Amino acid sequence: MPVWGTASEGEKVTVTFAGQKLEAVTKAGRWMIWLEPMRANATPQTLTISGANTRTFTNVLIGEVWLCSGQSNMERKMPQLVSRPPQPTDEWPKEAALANYPLIRHLTVPQTNSTKPFSTITAPWMICSPATVSNFTAVGYFFGRDLHKNLNVPIGLINSAYGGSVAESWTRADALRANPQLAPILADNERAIQSYSQRLAKYQADEPQLQTRYVTALAAAKAADTPRPNPPHAPPDPLSFVNSPSALYNAMLHPLLPYAIRGVIWYQGESSRLDAFQYRTLFPAMVADWRSLWGEGDFPFLYVQVAPCKLIGPEIRESQFLSLKKITNKPPAFPCAAPGTTKQPCSNPGFMRSSVMARNQISTPAARIS
Fold it and tell me: Pairing between strand 155-161 and 64-70?
């Protein structure tokens, strides 16, 4: 288990935890030690890091940590998912009242993006309780709760998700550059950066006319009771756009490395539907790169195939299915969404399938739930 941080050049750092005591010398401003493997332990312990100063972390557990990533399907919190409009239910208060699991912990990575990799984040671990569970990723909570009940070990959930995100924003630039089929993503983004000022100026010049057309089209749609048109909007700045290549990897994934994880659960695809054919190359490449960066081998990478919906054609679902051949021994869990929706309305079997898949892969390399 890695423990790392920053200190002055040459400073000696001592880490003490669970009967282990290790030392490291700071090089290039960073230090790291590796604790020997330990069995899961639900007894709170203290982690002490000493150097020029001392930091003490209490109530530290040893168990399974799962990274929960993707777009809004993973981002959605418990109240939003269990009692979402337009058909609110009384399930959320019932679920919240039962969420007394002090051995389940949750950390939310701050939502931001960057053109350069971050090295740190600031975010607290939350202990699962009726008072805190409203801050949990709903998919992650149901997944972690089922794992905890069946494995009887502490569960940590790292929620690093961003609504509306595409897969290339979660993929490292070097991984895109190394693949001839994906390198054009970076080239297109570079051209978008170069042309941004001209495209913005053109939009600003055309905006009055575009707004007039939009108002007319909106009135016609309301009168005919047809889908409303999208309002005009300025082109996004590629240097600050959440869906620029590697933007979320840089800000929300890179600073997590090399935190010891058991695996990943992934719920994304809706925003990649327009590039569905490319996704069958991009998604497996992203998974392979994450596994390489963590250096823990082919850890379980469980993903949910997006649900059928009138907004989503079959192409992205097919690409997710075909990705199974490239993501070795890690089959997906399939959702049980109501037809016509991309969000799950409650704690349905789709979440449970991910948990069952995880338990099967802990004990056997390959498993399928159908």
Answer: parallel
